[in-house]
Amino acid sequence: MEQEVRPSVRQLSFATGVIGGTLAALAAQIYLADMHVELASAWHDLFIAWSAQFKSALAWWLVAGTALIFGYIAAALTRFLMLHWWPLRVLRWIAGAGIVAVLAAIGHATGTSTGGSAAAHVGASLVGGLLAMLTAMLGAGFGARD
């Protein structure tokens, strides 16, 4: 099989899936913050106030689910494009420009943090980023396999 000749295809598609899934989850965090759903307030609702609200659970599941799905898609798409790279050069440029435009639009609409302390916001964002990276690794592992 062609992939066994080039073992770097699986490694590169896994790495691309992890990076793509993590970036998509960070974009989801930014989008949630724009809708005034902060991970720090969700953290407070879930673990300190012991009131598991739908909004709090949705924020954490949305970040994890986004990383899982986009990690899988990025790894599978990278694997496919690396094995069939020559005929799809123009499509890769168009898709890359579209991804950059979407990320710029999401990042442009961000505002300031609405409530809570800065330490809680940073801590919740870091935990959300780690959760995103772990679930992106899971999704990329499924997308990069044979």
Describe the structure.
The chain is mainly alpha-helical and 146 residues long. The protein has one domain. The protein has 6 helices and no strands. Helix 2 (8-34) packs antiparallel against helix 4 (54-83), helix 3 packs across helix 4 (54-83) and helix 4 packs parallel to helix 6 (118-144). The model has no long low-confidence stretch (mean pLDDT 78).
What Rg do the Cα atoms give? Answer: 17 Å
**Main sheet summary:** none
The total number of structural domains is 1
The helix content, as a percent range, equals over 70%
The ordered H/E elements are: HHHHHH
Oligomer state equals single chain
**Strands, total number:** 0
Please give the count of helices.
6
Query: Strand share of the residues?
Result: under 5%
How far the N terminus sits from the C terminus, by CA atoms, comes to 10 Å
Structural class: mainly alpha
Regions with pLDDT < 50 over 5+ consecutive residues?
none
What is the general shape?
elongated
Q: Averaging pLDDT over every residue, what do you get?
A: 78
Please supply descriptive tags for the structure shown above.
mainly alpha; 146 residues; single chain
Blueprint (SSEs and pairs):
Elements (H helix, E strand, L loop, with lengths): L1 H4 L2 H27 L4 H10 L5 H30 L5 H20 L9 H27 L2
Give a brief description.
By secondary structure, the chain is mostly helical. It has six helices and no strands.
